[in-house]
Amino acid sequence: MTDDIPTERPGALTAALLRALLDEVPALVGILAPDGTLIELNRPALACAAPALGAALGKPLWEAAGWDDAPQTRARLREAVSLAAGGAPQRLELAVQTPGGTGWLDLRIGPLCDTAGRLTHLSLTGLDLTERRTAEARLSAGAPPQPERTCADDEPSASRGRLADFAAATFEGIVISEAGRILDCNPQLERMLDYPPGSLAGRLIEDLVAPEHRERVMEAVQLLHTSHLEHEVLRRDGSRIVVEVRGLPDTTGGTGRRFTVLRDITERKRAEEALRAAHDTFYHLVQNSPFGVYTVDADFRLAQVSHGAQQVFANVRPLLGRDFAQVLRCLWSEPFATDAIARFRHTLATGEPYHSPGTVARRRDNEALESYDWKTERITLPDGRPGVVCHFYDLSERLHYEEALRDADRRKDELLATLAHELRNPLAPIRTGLEVLQLAGADPATAAPVIAMMKRQLHHLVRLVDDLLDIARITHGKIALRKEPVDLAETVAAALESAGLGAADGGRRLTTSLPDTPLLVEGDPVRLAQVIGNLLSNAVKFTREDGEIRLCVARESGPDADWARISVRDDGEGIAPGLTERIFDMFSQANPHRGGGLGIGLALAHRLVELHGGRIEAHSAGPGQGSEFIVRLPLAGAAHLGPSAALPAGGAALRARRVLVVDDSRDNADSTAVLLSALGAAVCVAYDGAAALAAAAAERPDTVLLDLGMPGLDGYEVARRLRAQFPGPQLQLVALTGWGDADDRRRVLAAGFDQHLIKPASIESLKAILDTRPNASG
């Protein structure tokens, strides 16, 4: 063969040289076309295990003669060629017919590509497994191994004819045992368990088996039957490995010996466990995820439904195995049902995925409007056929939130527009009144009605701001009731006075009906007067000028308790059907264009009544039929009226007090100073924190009215410094600010203030605070 090797290119790897090398390789080597056609074979392949292959040159590999179990083997070869041509190398163990009988080949097929990565041929290699299979068969039968034949010349080989040689060549551990004790083993077992050569002989098998597996292993050993087990064994250092064990009894000599083959499968078991854990984790994630997953099989039937998807199909029973088109038409209205069916069928037929990020459709089974982000993809299902998987996320809740946000945004816009309108209503006459006073000078006849009008409008303006602040406090849980025994007759009088209704203005008639004896409830008198005032204001707003408003307070006995019943009835515009429940919603107005409020008066009354443990309801026979609002409050048990603290008389002058007014708003500071001076106080003014500290050092005031939100030194810092400068009780600090919730009050007191007033402060509140301390200089 070597005579054919050309020598004109020394060192070159020529085709002839390659052919010569391949012919010396003691194994089967061949070349296949990509379709499996056998193109070339080396000389050993033609001479030993599969001589029939030589006659198959030019034919597909699976058509060669001599394959055992031809139909099954040819199918395996055809599949292996196809997979190898696709880039996946294949390995098979096949039985072949040789001149010496049945042989075995370890056959491998792989792709061969050019430098550009394009498939050109397939490689075919094979090792002769006949010796090994023969030895394994003789070992299982208990017979001594026979002389073996080589693949090249069919001559016996004395060097590989003994069992010891074969046992040393295999990868498995081999043990010969008797009565549960090791007689001999191959070196592979010693290396597997990390024992020195020859040190395992004489040991008990039981000592090598993990304790929890010993009972079943030793039972198999003692029965002397053929067995197949998987269990853990102990290495010399105490670590464990998992082995696959096949035990074969010696049935020929009657010695009770046993042949055992052990294969280390630790890595395989770890891989299987990791794969199982990954599968379980992934399954758990899918089942408990916030999205839904379901599959439709090749017959267009619902095959699998995850836990997250079951809610969508809750009204379909039975579910799995149902025709998917029928399921969709049961759940969804048209045209969505037909469109979705078409989408699924298209994905199943073509493999083209589909994604809808925000489908909104109405359910047929429950009339609910729902929204989904859903996607379809074609997959291969466990039966090997194609199917469609659908992943979807329920956006319905988000849809409701978005709708609520849009509604809140719309209400906010309406509130701002209404607020602007309502604030202009009192501001316009106040501005006009100021201009009239400026033109009229000091003419009392002209000034008196203008001043009265300005007071009414200012009261209305303050009330609007107070209502807004109260709603915010209640919403955030920051409103606190100062409860005491309250006579509702006095509360009604306070409500009529504070509301400044003028119910008789324009001809409206207001009639009241009060109990002859005091009707006592446990409540905050200011807040209860606010409730009644809001109901009266609402009645005036929706009652024509010649209409009538009736306020009635009475005791009402119930099955569980006695109540105080407050009723405000009018014969005005009434309430349309369906609005009586919504009339207490925030910013709700029966007639938004009617004007005269922000739509928060009734909502505020409703929440204040609930805070008192009562309830409020609205009744109306319809538009033009008037309306009635009824408040029920629990009566006080053993309540009694305590002494009421009366405010100082409105015209009483203050005793001579030295007062420092501090505010960065000059108008606020100057107007407050003028008011206090008119009442007899000695007043000085500062417009910032630094000036306030200097004025306090020079004038040593008894009382400081201090604004909080000033630039530079704010009111809190000024208060702390004043307390450090005048540590005794002779200085009274009063916060006069527009901030008035519970947190603001706590912060004010923590900064060293004695009192907290909300702008604009009334004369009565100012006088009450200034009279709480005697004149320190007196």
Largest sheet: 5 strands, antiparallel
Main CATH class of the largest domain: Alpha Beta
Total beta-strand segments: 29
Strand percentage lies at: 15-25%
Unreliable segments (pLDDT under 50, ≥5 consecutive)? 1-14, 142-163, 592-596, 638-654, 774-778
- The Rg value, from CA coordinates, equals 50 Å
> How are the strands of the biggest sheet laid out side by side?
2-1-5-4-3
CATH fold label of the largest domain: Heat Shock Protein 90
> In whole angstroms, how far apart are the ends?
138 Å
Return the average pLDDT rounded to an integer.
77
Residue share in helix? 25-40%
The CATH homologous superfamily of the largest domain is named Histidine kinase-like ATPase, C-terminal domain
CATH architecture of the largest domain: 2-Layer Sandwich
* Total number of domains: 5
Going by helix content, strand content and strand pairing, the class is alpha+beta
Note the total helix count: 21
As an assembly, this protein is single chain
Overall, the morphology is elongated
Task: Explain what you see.
With 778 residues, this protein is of the alpha+beta class. The chain folds into 5 domains: 2-128, PAS domain (Beta-Lactamase, 2-Layer Sandwich); 140-269, 2-Layer Sandwich (Beta-Lactamase); 289-394, Beta-Lactamase; 480-634, Heat Shock Protein 90 (2-Layer Sandwich); 658-770, Response regulator (Rossmann fold). Helix content is 37%, strand content 24%. The protein is built from 21 helices and 29 strands. The strands form 7 sheets. The chain has a 5-stranded antiparallel beta sheet with strand order 2-1-5-4-3, sandwiched between helices. Strands 9-8-12-11-10 form a 5-stranded antiparallel beta sheet, sandwiched between helices. Strand 6 and strand 7 (156-157) form a beta hairpin. Helix 13 (444-475) packs across helix 16 and helix 14 crosses helix 15 (525-541). It is elongated, with a radius of gyration of 50 Å.
